[in-house]
Inverse folding.
């Protein structure tokens, strides 16, 4: 029986193509409540091995897309059938294109002071029909979170982009899902930095080869410690495959 998802190291990953993910996103506007989209890569899957809260958040998300190329490789090793990578930044672009065509509004939460505002300006420069419901940086305390939620709800945004970094953004969305009023909330991590111009996406050759992670390492060697999750992930996948 096709459940519509697979499990990689115990973590749920939806069995979706880029088009399939977009089609599922469209259905969220016909349903009640805020629908959540999470974009795990190998690093997040490895974090979830030791973080039960994160594991539960991913388990209960409304759409879990396979962002990392390592997940696709693992799927091939296990024979699970994930056919293509669905990146968070590509998903965000499709969502923005939809908002532009339909005149829907977006709110951007997260990043350093000024980053969300610049990202919003650049987005509206490219998508002139998108409505800005507001922006807010990620520098707020836990005691201020309900005020942040109130500000987002008062904006009446259709889509909430949360860029607090993983796994904070996923946990934050899950924590307030039941009180948020946006139709969709998605964790977008560094995508907002790309839209603000503070970071660049890898050239197409790296993207096609599934080597965006390597490009990020070349441009920011400080990521080496984070990148250690990739070989650990591969080793764990191979070990669990051999164990059957």
């Amino acid at each position: 029986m096709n459940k519509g998802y697979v499990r990689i190291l115990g973590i749920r990953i939806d069995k979706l193509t880029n088009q399939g993910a977009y089609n599922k996103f469209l259905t969220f506007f016909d349903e009640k409540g805020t629908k959540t989209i999470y974009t795990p890569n190998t690093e997040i899957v490895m974090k979830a091995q030791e973080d039960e809260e994160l594991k539960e958040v991913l388990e209960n998300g409304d759409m879990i897309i396979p962002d990392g190329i390592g997940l696709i490789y693992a799927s091939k090793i296990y024979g699970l059938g994930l056919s293509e990578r669905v990146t968070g930044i590509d998903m965000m672009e499709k969502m923005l294109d939809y908002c532009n065509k339909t005149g829907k509004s977006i709110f951007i939460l997260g990043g350093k002071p000024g980053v969300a505002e610049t990202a919003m300006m650049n987005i509206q420069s490219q998508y002139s029909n998108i409505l800005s419901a507001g922006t807010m940086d990620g520098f707020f305390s836990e005691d201020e979170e309900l005020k942040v939620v109130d500000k987002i709800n008062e904006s009446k945004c259709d889509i909430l982009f949360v860029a607090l970094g993983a796994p904070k953004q996923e946990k934050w969305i899950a924590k307030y899902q039941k009180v948020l009023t946006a139709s969709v909330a998605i964790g977008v991590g560094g995508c907002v930095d790309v839209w603000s111009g503070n970071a660049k996406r890898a050239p197409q050759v790296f993207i096609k080869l599934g080597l965006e992670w390597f490009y990020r390492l070349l441009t920011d060697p400080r990521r080496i410690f984070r990148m250690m999750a990739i070989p650990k992930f591969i080793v764990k996948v191979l070990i669990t495959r051999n164990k059957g």
Remarks:
- The chain has a mean pLDDT of 93.
- Residues 88-102 form the longest helix (15 residues).
- The chain has 13 helices and eight strands.
